[in-house]
Amino acid sequence: MNNLLGKVIWKKKGKLEILSAAFGFLIGLVLLLLIIQINHDFNTIFTSKFSDSKQVDYVILSKKIDISHSFNFSEIGFTEFEINNIMGQPFVKSLARIIANNFSVNAVISFGNAAYSTELFFESIPDDYLDEIPDSWGWNGDNEFLPVIISKDFYNLYNFGFAVGRGLPMISEDVISQIPFIITVSGPGGKINLQGKIVGFTDSISSFLIPYSFMQWANKNIALNESEPPLRLILSVTDKGDPMISEFVKQTGYDTNKRILGLSEAKGIIQALFVFIGFLGVAFISLSVSIFIINFQLIISHSMDEIQLLNILGYKKSTLVNSLIFFLISLLVFAWIIGLVICVSITNIIHNFLLQIGFNDAFSLNPFVFLYSVIIIVFCLGINYFVISRKLD
Q1: What range defines the domain where residue 269 resides?
Q2: pTM for this one?
């Protein structure tokens, strides 16, 4: 019976068109599955490279300085309206004002009989925005010890710039953390001396950080001015590479780390490329499904007289439908297996390349690759079954 059905079905229509459609289906399936896998790997790299440090979630925002700010013609600080507008952006989880000192700061470091004095500036952020909180961090009104966290950038600039140029010794993090210095804070409200020490380092912000509680107290009691608008803001964002961050900064004219903007723009371009390739994959699959449908309809139309004769002889419609669907299942399952093999092979090549260039992340095959491929096969079979059944009615 199956041989007779095969002769009737294929005698007036070759299989070349359907095989060509299957090849197109294979290309579309590989493209789509690769995009799903590569997007998974991309997110793995992006997350792992920055998830080890809280600083990845932080973006420092300031206003660009122009000539009007140089001559004090305009305000450089953020207004409450601007802060509320920033807080309302979808990529912002929270934000904090970076408070700067309104008082004078002088630091004196003694080495034997020699003493070095320098002017400093301080800034403060809430403890929640620190990379990590050192054990000796904090200040209260009775404490004459003031802990300081410095930027890793400043530390590296000293060792690889200032120290080399002046013939001074480089200082390790352990050593610099043991060097005490005297901090003199002065302003209209008076002057106090504090014992200072570097207790930690930060990658989040290029600054000298002191406890938030001391900054508020000193601005109020030493500088007699605690109401200055913030010059910089620190944002906790959902994704540092979110293209919306770059777009928002450009629209508002604010300033931030150019690396953040580059990261944001690069991720936006990559995502757009993923969407385009994914669209091509969907287009190939859709075109292939259409060719399947058209060819099966032609097969049935060209063999309608023979099909009616077979019905008279006792062949059921379901037998013919099942015969066509079985052929399609065999074709698509073969294409599915080949597609998965190609996808896994290309994925392994990409993973080995990433490992060779220094990405030591735990790459794995995304389970959604298998799931989506099965869904695509079932969807294709379901549409063709429906069309064939309707055609034979």
Answers
A1: 2-50+265-392
A2: 0.60
